[in-house]
Amino acid sequence: MTQLLKGIAASDGIAIAKAYKLVYPDLTVVKTEIADSKIEITRFVAALQEAAKELEKIKEQANTELGEDKAAIFSAHLLVLSDPELLNPVKDKITNEQVNAEFALNESANLFIQMFEQMDNEYMRERAADIRDVTKRILSHLLGVRIPNPSLLSDEVIIVTEDLTPSDTAQLNRKFVLGFTTDVGGRTSHSAIMARSMEIPAVVGTKVVTSEVQNGDIIIIDGLSGQVLINPSAELVEEYKQKLKNYQQQKVEWAKLKNEPTLTLDGHHVELAANIGTPEDVQGVLDNGGEGIGLYRTEFLYMGRDNLPSEDEQYDAYKKVLQRMEGKPVVVRTLDIGGDKELPYLDLPKEMNPFLGYRAIRLCLDEQTIFRTQLRALLRASQFGDLKIMFPMIATLEEFRQAKQMLLEEKEKLVQEKILVSDKIEIGIMVEIPSTAIIADQFASEVDFFSIGTNDLIQYTLAADRMNERVSYLYQPFHPAILRLINMVVEAAHKEGKWVGMCGEMAGEKMATPVLLALGLDELSMSASSILPIRSIINRESKSRLNSLKERILSMSSAEEVIELVKKEYSFN
Asked: Positive or negative CA dihedral for 510, 515, 518, 523?
């Protein structure tokens, strides 16, 4: 019998496929005494052999699917797996203390991990992450559990998981992952944002999907309505195949606008750009008629690996994006790590309130080696296109000035080294903290542009964690306070002759389009798949008509009033 679950429609589209449960096993180790150490060592050696076979397969597939740079991680893991410095102490512990292999491995590995993490040499500290990962893999074989690896899928599936971390999402094999559904999350969670970037349907926040679905179940996810159907009847499968066909036909209609300008009926132009996470995302931008990249989330260069990307690795990635965009603007956000985006190899402190803590520009101004490496890579790549650099999480003028000063210092060093650097790089900031929006007039005289990050601006303004389902009702993009802050930023920028974009998820919301046009945004940056639907809306609107909307929405006292007005005036359902 078909089971129906309701969630949040996070990314448009419909997918029908087998379920792949991405659930990480419990690797808790219990100490037990053993009677025969030889048998236990045999178990340990067998687990090593199984782990080696697994890693060889993963390395081979990673080399094919992800490239040699990603596959190199698994070469390092294989070296750890055969290192007598790690393995012999485990065997000695089993024999001398008559304890089980799991406990002996865990104890010995933890000593090595602690030792490496305390070393001054960065390369040696990175080896701690290798040992940790290899230990988990050996333990999984000793405990008889499976560690999933979504990057190495070979069949079309729908991912079912409690939540997808940014690292998990970055490793998904797009060829085989048709969509995903989660227990938790909302439209602005990073997994949802990445789903839209990857142009795959997603339903999040179902609360129970992992407990209701088994591996291999046939499921349907409807990213248009927010529904998940488990083991649907043949009739329902046919019905949804027709819905999928209808959606694909609508996309064909939108595709006709690919090479059309984004103009209102009275000739007002708004630039429609895309948000990307990797160089591979550029193809989606081009396929969807993007006029630029309004947000390149560079943190994904740092994820899904065991060490920091080198300057040359970053340079290659930035160069590739700029070249493929062929002179169209590319706005690159410097490293925005922290909050729900962690890098295990950086060993960042655990914080009570990470979204308000040590993250983004705050981390970069403190960890200057990391920051300056990225700035050098960006500057070196700047000669290959129209690069614009923006700093995230700016709260004070002093932070912007310090970040800009470092950028100029690195530029001067490169010039001294006779390395070509563009002289036309615009430097801007993300406006995602209320204090920045309130003094936008002061920032406007020093920055080249603003890009409004509504995801954080909304949660900080309304003091509502956007990941917390209990206060999700307070995540209100149309709240009058948000609209007034946006208006303040736009007016301050235009007074100084500067442009204002928006790269938060609000920019890709169909119902928000008339509101944002009325408020005077110059650029809207969104998931590539949203560009053509938004262009179709803008092409039907008149800027002169929208001017009267601005005064009305800014005078309203609730988000509900604004939404009702937009529905009434612009025929949104």
From this structure: negative
pLDDT in tens, 349-371: 777 777 788 889 999 999 999 99
Assess whether 503 carries a catalytic annotation.
yes
Q: Are 145 and 323 in contact (CB under 8 A)?
A: no
Active site residue 190: yes
Hey, where are the domains in the chain? 3-24+150-252, 37-143, 272-428, 432-573
User: Closest Cα to residue 264, out of 514, 571, 524?
Assistant: 514
Architecture of domain 3-24+150-252: 3-Layer(bba) Sandwich (3.50)
Which pTM value belongs to this model?
0.72
Q: Which residue has the tokens 């010039």?
A: 415
Among the options 77, 141, 479, 503, which is catalytic? 503
Per the residue annotation, which of 190, 268, 269, 479 is the catalytic one? 190
- Fold of the domain spanning 37-143: Enzyme I; Chain A, domain 2 (1.10.274)
Superfamily of domain 272-428: Phosphoenolpyruvate-binding domains (3.20.20.60)
List, in sequence order, every beta strand (DSSP E) within 149-286: 157-161, 177-182, 202-204, 218-222, 227-230, 271-276
